[in-house]
Amino acid sequence: MLWFFFCLALLVVAYFTYGKIVEKIFVINPNRKTPAHELADGVDYMSMSNTKVFLIQLLNIAGLGPVFGPILGALYGPVAMLWIVIGCIFAGAVHDYFSGMLSVRSNGASVPSVVGDHLGKWAKHFMNVFALLLLVLVGVVFVTGPAKLLSNLTSLNVLTWVGIIFAYYILATLMPISKVIGRFYPFFGALLLFMSFGLTIGLIMSDKQFYSYGLDFMTNFDTKGLPIWPLLFVTISCGAISGFHATQSPLMARCIADEKSGRMIFYGAMILEGAIALIWCTLGLSFYESSAALQEVISKSTPAGVVHEISTALLGGVGGIIAILGVVILPITSGDTAFRSARLIIADFFNMQQKDISKRLLISIPLFAVGIVLSQVDFQTIWRYFGWANQTTAAIMLWTASAYLYKSGKFHWITTVPALFMTAVVMTYLAYEKIGFGLDMTVSTVIGIVCSVVLLVLFFRLPKNAISE
């Protein structure tokens, strides 16, 4: 447990140190009017308090990723905790800050428009398609996961819960952001925090330890022999770095009152999500006697079974149910905003105003139809495609932030280094995995590195020019 608290302390310290460095490099303008004031429409653009925006941002980004991902990552051993801390501080939180603040500077534009502003129109067109693919996959993943958890707690089957969750998604996607999301998310945020810290206290008071792991960061404990590189860096996304967050940050970029709130809302929410990921990774490493024991539960009932077993064991019946509900809320409160973001991306592309509910319906109905069909596909298959699409989006957003900094004559390496790393990860993964080309690991790694180097060369060919602040 001492190692867990040390990692947690690193995240907290990073917010007050590295977070300020990132903010200083970006250069905020507290007197600049934000989109919430200049473009207020009563639906998507409206100013809200920092506390409310922070909690909404946290719930928007913290889907199943910081729970299921770290549980699956724990199969590799304590090295998973290292990736969460290093990835969150130097990649994920930086990614979230720039995706949010660049949207603020672009009148609350969705991620494809932000990418297009700094990488060109072809990048924008590609990102329009890719972001929609990711968001629909997110919406589907964040339906089936909580549906399985809720079916374990009730007499209703999974399919019934899928229908109920989709009905909620439709409502939350169509209503003004203050009516459902702004009103109920702060309460959900409190439930999420209870779940996270309640389970931490429960673990401290139990006799659970790191069993056979120790603090061995060099050994791969995965029972199936799956390689740490690059699979761990795709398996654990939310909590370390997640491209999905780039699609969510513009929602709150349309609601923050001033630019000085950006570090708290974007960098800070990611740091807190990293803490949630640490909790679940530690639970996965501590609660079960070995990686094989953890794998057995996952194989029988997916990570949802692990959540149910750990929560009821550490917090008892009532506390366990509350903790499970907290985990249920995570994906649902990200799934609804995933579809909301998809609606806004399509609206931006067709320049379609969204104040009229009939226009919101025109976009939303086909989106939900596709989502309902995909929800019937095997969860593990959807999760793998989601993982790759998620981290590829993160790499693109990091390159976008680097382009902005480079063109502005600012220190771009804070985003370029993680962009290079994530490019190597996703290209190696695509070359190696069966959902991609199924190549040899050595060949796949060479492909990943070469792709990173090629993009770096192309990056330095970008024209330098002053960007209006």
From TrEMBL:
Annotated membrane topology: Multi-pass membrane protein
Family per similarity comment: Belongs to the peptide transporter carbon starvation (CstA) (TC 2.A.114) family.
Transmembrane segments: 75-98, 126-146, 158-177, 184-206, 226-244, 265-288, 310-333, 361-379, 385-406, 413-432, 438-460
Major subcellular location class: membrane
Name the UniProt record assigns to this protein: Peptide transporter CstA
Subcellular location: Cell membrane
Domain CstA N-terminal: 4-143, 150-280, 316-428
GN (gene name): cstA
Keywords noted in UniProt: Cell membrane, Membrane, Transmembrane, Transmembrane helix
InterPro entries: CstA, CstA_N
Organism whose genome encodes this protein: Campylobacter suis
